[in-house]
Input
Amino acid sequence: GEDVEQSLFLSVREGDSSVINCTYTDSSSTYLYWYKQEPGAGLQLLTYIFSNMDMKQDQRLTVLLNKKDKHLSLRIADTQTGDSAIYFCAESISSDKLIFGTGTRLQVFP
Amino acid sequence: DTGVSQNPRHKITKRGQNVTFRCDPISEHNRLYWYRQTLGQGPEFLTYFQNEAQLEKSRLLSDRFSAERPKGSFSTLEIQRTEQGDSAMYLCASSLDQGIHGYTFGSGTRLTVV
Output
C-alpha cells in the first residue's frame, strides 16, 4: 500500500542542524521529494533523490535515503528563522502521481 | 512564465452551490495535477491530465467533482452541490512529462463551504 509517515513537529535553535525524517511503504517508489510549505502558500520543491542513490547534497540541504528500511531524511545545516515552515516528503508512484506525508512543522527559535 | 497560476485564491460558498476553480500551468508543461489539502494534512491526489487526456482519477473524486483540460492548457475543477466536507485548499501542479525533477505547484484555491 501507499503510506508516507512523518513526525509532526520539530523545534531547533537558530544555527543548529535540523533533521526531518520520513518513512514510506511502497518499495517501487522511483523518486522521493522534499517540499516546503509556508503559511497560506503552495508547495515549493526543495530537492529530490532517485531511488538508486543513497545521498544527495544541495547547499545547506542533505538528503539521505535508506532504501532497505524505506527511510528518508532531510538535514538542513545552519537552520535559519526563514526555514520555519512545514516540510513534506513525497514518493513518486509509477511516475504518475506523488503521495505526500502529513508534514513536519519546523519551528526555529533564536 | 510566472509559474502555475490558480484562481480564485479564496472562495466562500453556501452548501449546495456549485463552484469552479481554474488552473493555468507552466506553458511548456504537458502534465497537470489536482490535489486537495485539508488542515494539518499533506496534499491528496485527485486527478491528473496529460495534455487534454484525463489519465487517472482518485477514489476521493466523487461524482460531484469534474475536471477538464479542454485544449491541453488551462484546467478547471468543478464541484457540484458543495458540502461542508469539501472545504479545503485545492492545489494545482504541472510538470514536463512524468515530473522526474518535481512538480511546480500553484498557491492554491482555498474553499470554505458554509
Observations:
- Chain B touches chain A through 25 residues (CB under 8 Å).
- The CA atoms of residues 93 and 105 of chain B lie 4 Å apart.
- The mean pLDDT of chain B is 93.
